Amino acid sequence: MAAPFTLRKIGVPPNSANLTEARRRVFDFFRAACRSIPTIMDIYNLQDVVAPSQLRFAISSQIRNNAHVTDPKVIDLLLFKGMEELTDIVDHAKQRHHIIGQYVVGEGLVQNTGSKDQGKSDFLKNFYTSNYF
Amino acid sequence: MASLSATSLSFKAPSTRSTRISQVLRKASTFQSISFGRFQSSKSLRLQISCAAKPETVQKVSDIVKEQLALSADTALTSESKFSALGADSLDTVEIVMALEEKFNISVEEADAQNITTIQEAADLIEDLVQKKPAA
């Protein structure tokens, strides 16, 4: 059995100097999140609901959502928010329905903002907002 | 006096020389044995690593890669196919490594993970870590 992974809470590190360091931090964050998945499934009793690979896919899709960002400082801020979210989840500060709604079920309970779904058609966008267009 | 000292010196000299020689010989023999032992074990380790990855490990790695990259079941995956050639970006590669970590119950260091570009390398690294694990 591999040694259990514990999320160490480090203080805020200085900004990354360039894109490669920001990239490295993204991968480190992703690895930390994936290694915390067994703990998360244990805390929130998600064994019957979701498989670890689905949770990994949810995390990676959230990261991919912001893959178009090029400014290292913006990436740092996104990572900070991601790390905050991960720490909250691991600390059991959230509840089971939060996790299931946000990461297990499709787009989640809250509809995503329009800028993220660029592939949908204008007809559908208008259709979802009102009957008259 | 001088002759006495000379004789005493002369007596001492071979004894010291002999002890030194014997010490050197002892050290040399132990050194030789250690180096020989190490040489043997390193040779055997090297042989193990070169023919390490078992076919079932490679097969499991290929299955995980196919599932992760959503490839159809009949795409031919050789052990030398690179992840980037199969349409995986760097995040996909990290995700594949994490899936392998979970599947084989190992823990891959960051430095090792960056060198993985083909399926064969991944299988070799897994074999290494699986062998090291029960020894630790």
TrEMBL record, chain A:
Keywords: Electron transport, Membrane, Mitochondrion, Mitochondrion inner membrane, Respiratory chain, Transport. It comes from the Eukaryota. It is found in: Mitochondrion inner membrane. The keyword Mitochondrion applies. One of its GO terms (cellular component) is respiratory chain complex I. One of its GO terms (biological process) is response to oxidative stress. It is a peripheral membrane protein. Belongs to the complex I LYR family. This is NADH dehydrogenase [ubiquinone] 1 alpha subcomplex subunit 6. It comes from Brassica carinata (Ethiopian mustard).
UniProtKB/TrEMBL annotation, chain B:
It comes from Brassica carinata. HAMAP family: Acyl_carrier. Gene3D superfamilies: ACP-like. It is found in: Plastid, Chloroplast. PANTHER family: ACYL CARRIER PROTEIN (PTHR46153), ACYL CARRIER PROTEIN 4, CHLOROPLASTIC (PTHR46153:SF11). Pathway: Lipid metabolism; fatty acid biosynthesis. Signal peptide: none annotated. Belongs to the acyl carrier protein (ACP) family. Pfam families: PP-binding. Transmembrane segments: none annotated. The keyword Phosphoprotein applies. Residues 55-130 form the Carrier domain. Its main location: plastid. It comes from the Eukaryota. PROSITE patterns: CARRIER, PHOSPHOPANTETHEINE. The keyword Aminoacyl-tRNA synthetase does not apply. This is Acyl carrier protein. One of its GO terms (cellular component) is chloroplast.
